[in-house]
## 1
Amino acid sequence: EAQVTQNPRYLITVTGKKLTVTCSQNMNHEYMSWYRQDPGLGLRQIYYSMNVEVTDKGDVPEGYKVSRKEKRNFPLILESPSPNQTSLYFCASGPDTEAFFGQGTRLTVV
Amino acid sequence: DAKTTQPPSMDCAEGRAANLPCNHSTISGNEYVYWYRQIHSQGPQYIIHGLKNNETNEMASLIITEDRKSSTLILPHATLRDTAVYYCIDGYSTLTFGKGTMLLVSP
């Protein structure tokens, strides 16, 4: 079954404590991306990756890092989280013509 | 920013067809029209896409006008589980989501 798996699903953390949200896909897709969703602002792309070792900024990359060391994994890293990064995060895998999204990670930074 | 325009909300009776409009008047020649939906904070789900021709799959039909400036997503027999936010997106390599249309299907 085609899957995009994010972990954790829920996370509460404190300001400044580094965290990583993992994303894994089993469809051998080259393209993966991260979005955040906030009330009134919709889904906004943070970073995307066209292939292994190829990443680029989306619309709202500030405060985030990503890496793509292998095709199946695309972790999102918050080196020093701040309260304005409290949001619902989605990882996506695949081309625009049929992108698969994970179930989301609800992050709260206090 | 999203380049499409959709009504913020629509209602539909269960079992009836839901017709969701979208304007994409600035779409360029190589850009597709994509439709996704999001059910209550779950990950968005792909529905259908098209370039010029009308398309149909097991979920929905997509009608694109000849000038490609607008399209309509048709759910032929809406069910309660079709209640969701529906996003119309035009693009080539990146999905830029707008605010979408909140479709409420009622008994």
## 2
Amino acid sequence: DQQVKQNSPSLSVQEGRISILNCDYTNSMFDYFLWYKKYPAEGPTFLISISSIKDKNEDGRFTVFLNKSAKHLSLHIVPSQPGDSAVYFCAATPSGGYQKVTFGIGTKLQVIP
Amino acid sequence: DTEVTQTPKHLVMGMTNKKSLKCEQHMGHRAMYWYKQKAKKPPELMFVYSYEKLSINESVPSRFSPECPNSSLLNLHLHALQPEDSALYLCASSQEGLNTEAFFGQGTRLTVV
């Protein structure tokens, strides 16, 4: 039973355009959400996070949007760059969240020069 | 130093062998984790150590035995593994407390033959 779902296994975007990666969750206890980026042969690297008390968090080219009622979050990358090509994992942790993080299956983003 | 270092990078072991995976961080993080990741699957939490004490064991079989000798080191002792245990084993660390991101090592690619 996947509690964090990333339904698009892959995404291709032209350099300079917007990349939108989506994530849905089912567990109402989740209240902190993270995005990790993973290059081949490396461990995941933290990218950006959002608490459930917010609906948007922005860090440079990366913005995460949270829609709690829809149990949906998305990561926007603008403008996309070839170096952004990686696998992006959505992750969630519950209230009082003891770092018991649940990961989605990941979306492979390819940014085409 | 913002690295989590895992050794070895690759390991091939027989089902009767005993081996250990090692993880080290010098960021002063007091929470350390072991994750297991199979191909095309999300990282799955195995163990969490907090202040060198085991705080979460996600019903992991006893053939996996974690150890935290001190605040910088985390080991995973392996004994009598099965071929289905072949996976990428990721170590991570984080600050104690809520809503903090984890720093991951690059993982140990384990093959059980």
## 3
Amino acid sequence: NAGVTQTPKFQVLKTGQSMTLQCAQDMNHEYMSWYRQDPGMGLRLIHYSVGAGITDQGEVPNGYNVSRSTTEDFPLRLLSAAPSQTSVYFCASSYRGGTIYFGEGSWLTVV
Amino acid sequence: DQQVKQNSPSLSVQEGRISILNCDYTNSMFDYFLWYKKYPAEGPTFLISISSIKDKNEDGRFTVFLNKSAKHLSLHIVPSQPGDSAVYFCAASEGGGADGLTFGKGTHLIIQP
């Protein structure tokens, strides 16, 4: 029973590098989303998707790209990493109106 | 402009007593409210939720109260246990969570023996 799986758990990037944070869920949930959490802050929504082929921006989308080609996967891309993107990233999924489940997080440091 | 506010960064409660965590919101379009518990180095874990058509929801030791006129909700934990020590986040959404959640900054609950 995997739930929401995020990879990698830890990553160090140099400024300007690109990378993709992977998120997969095995619950057949329509809704998936990405959040970031910074020290002393709550989680802030980056991008979300209400189904395959449909994505939209959240509160803090700049510097991030997403796509949803399948129901199961929702990768988050950083095209040119900046130190301001040092954060903990959480992926989440749910049915409409259902419990929203989170992955265990991905710790990203940009130097 | 913070739409969901948790004004107490931390709260210390004795084991066995009641813990009350508070949350205020400003967006009158929010219709679904949730509480999450988070341990360090882990993802948030869902605790309990409430729809705006209700004013109370219970699940075991956890009860959430919603006061729509005051735009205020609270989480009661009775009795408090050592394992309840964690950061608690209040979250809210419109339309059942389809377009994501808006979180408060969290309250660090410390249960003292």
